Amino acid sequence: MAIGAVISSRNFGSFTGSGKVCQTEKADRHQRGELGVCSLTYARGTIFKTRPPISREFCSYKFKHSCYPVGVLGGVKHHPLSNHLQCSENFHIINLKRRIQRRCDCLLFSDSSHRSWSKPLKLDKLGISDGQFQKCEYRQATTTRADYKPEHFDITEPLDPRNTSEASAEVVLVEGNVQKITSWWKQFPKRWVIVLLCFSAFLLCNMDRVNMSIAILPMSQEFNWNSATVGLIQSSFFWGYLLTQIIGGIWADKIGGKLVLGFGVVWWSVATVLTPLAAKVGLPFLLIMRAFMGIGEGVAMPAMNNILSKWVPVSERSRSLALVYSGMYLGSVIGLAFSPVLIHNFGWPSVFYSFGSLGSIWFALWLSKAHSSPQEDPELHIEEKKLILGESQSKEPVSVIPWKLILSKAPVWALIISHFCHNWGTFILLTWMPTYYNQVLKFNLTESGLFCVLPWLTMAVFANLGGWIADTLVSKGLSITAVRKIMQSIGFLGPAFFLTQLSYVRTPAMAVLCMACSQGSDAFSQSGLYSNHQDIGPRYAGVLLGLSNTAGVLAGVFGTAATGYILQRGSWDDVFKVAVALYIIGTLIWNLFATGEKILD
């Protein structure tokens, strides 16, 4: 734009007369709903000799009895005031100044190419038109005021807004290039919206899972359960969890992760709410309900892995997965922190009712915001779609699973065995940690829940730290294979070292510190084996995670149940020794056979 000016044309009629320009000033204007506002109120043949070109945004100055549309105008050569305006061929007019005591409405017109007036769309103060957000404009304008008073016009007479010869108006001509921006939530990358929704799903996943590890203490007292029965109840969750790992992966790879993950959250939320009723009916019903809950949570990880393999480019893979899995850890933090409080004030059933009901809120957001792939999202910006599809792997839907090919690859078996070794120690700490604090460290129920928070909080922090480190190493040129081996070696050897130290500590504080360090180093696995499914076979990411997590679930079933029997005949030192041995075995197999290269296409 050449210049910007504010023209205050007070009561000009046919524009015969004289006037002068005065008071030029700089002004910063922020326009929301008033895009393309022109207060040259009457454009019906008097002001302009010919109809000017019309730009995209249109507005009208709407009075009580009539509406006179006015456009973003160009070509003011025939305007009598043009002698006082040294402006270019095309300019934008914004910022309506009201001079007449009538209502002013800002409108957008839908047709940007036709010269006739199109259907107006009402804009409110926030720039919302029929529920749709309109882009804002930030401009810097140089304003020049010109008071124009024709000689023959008596300003003491009342103005008639329907008379085009009687008008007053004020316009702003804006200087500079137009830069349109949207609100921050519109600019936020959609792929990270998907990541955050998956993060919140995993947050609820572990909240609903770990509440039993706290509630089992008062429940066992009320129903007279021994350690073996407690171990059976804790492991019953994994019966259903085991069944849906591979099925969930196949389902997600074929029909998309959105439906599968949504189904899982609703299913396990309902099972969580029904858990107190099942416990009061009888032990068999409680075991069945916990298995049902496992069915819902079993599809979550394969479905999430399928979605992120389509939405997240390789350069952001580790940090996105680390953030999602840190949702599990923060879910454990919230569940372990709030469960004792709820139990103390409202009884143990309250934790199941309150946590389970949160799934309905998440499901409503998921239905409205999520899509299984970028191709299915009509609101995805073209730049982001190019970034995702340009960097990521093939996104064609899977129709047939090549089981023979998958199971013939050594890196797949390295992934399966390492997942088993990893989950043995992880699930023992997840399900038995409150009991360890209560029986060995002599913490009460509330203290057990609160001290259990620290290790999981440490995992949430270190998982994201490991994700950023891994992506940074990849961006620096280190091979994906080397990055995955480094991260997973930390995830195995770190917990092994700190669990061995528990036999030598003598204070509760040091025991909690060792637990926290063990879990914190374990979190580096999210940038190791948990990211490897998308590395070696992005099209079969759901199936691969279903396979390896099936082995991980078996470790949870056997490890959790075996811990109960070990404690009846041995000690906690024996429990930790088994976990350490499996960590070392997993380290050797992972470093010998794992790879970060794509082996399945």
From TrEMBL:
Keywords: Chloroplast, Membrane, Plastid, Transit peptide, Transmembrane, Transmembrane helix. It holds the Pfam family MFS_1. The keyword Transmembrane applies. Residues 194-598 form the Major facilitator superfamily (MFS) profile domain. It is a multi-pass membrane protein. This is Ascorbate transporter, chloroplastic-like. Signal peptide: none annotated. The gene is LOC104596034. The lineage of its organism: Eukaryota, Viridiplantae, Streptophyta, Embryophyta, Tracheophyta. Belongs to the major facilitator superfamily. Sodium/anion cotransporter (TC 2.A.1.14) family. GO terms for cellular component: chloroplast; plastid membrane.
